[in-house]
Amino acid sequence: MDVSAKITSKGQVTIPKSVRDALGLHEGDELLFRVERSRAVVAKTPDFLGLAGSVPVPAAKRGTPWDEVVRQTRSARAERRP
After folding, report:
1. Is the overall model pTM greater than 0.70, yes or no?
2. In this predicted model, what pLDDT tens digit does every residue of 31-68 receive, in sequence order?
3. Residue 20 is part of a domain; what is its CATH number?
4. For residue 81, what are the contacts with CB-CB under 8 A and spacing of at least 6?
């Protein structure tokens, strides 16, 4: 989808409704701007808190300190390397 918009004298741009709808943007959402050569890529910032609970965690692993999770992960990866 290609849609254009003009920049105001204050450097503001109104995101066209078709783009807002396509990205599921709503008032208060945060956007990420990435410059790639002569282009800007705009993306909706994911709501990580909204993902909480979406990945099942076995009861035995709940409450494991993060540094222990990282240590176990690195150890498991090292064992798989040829």
Report:
1. no
2. 999 999 999 998 888 777 777 778 888 888 888 999 99
3. 2.10.260.10
4. none
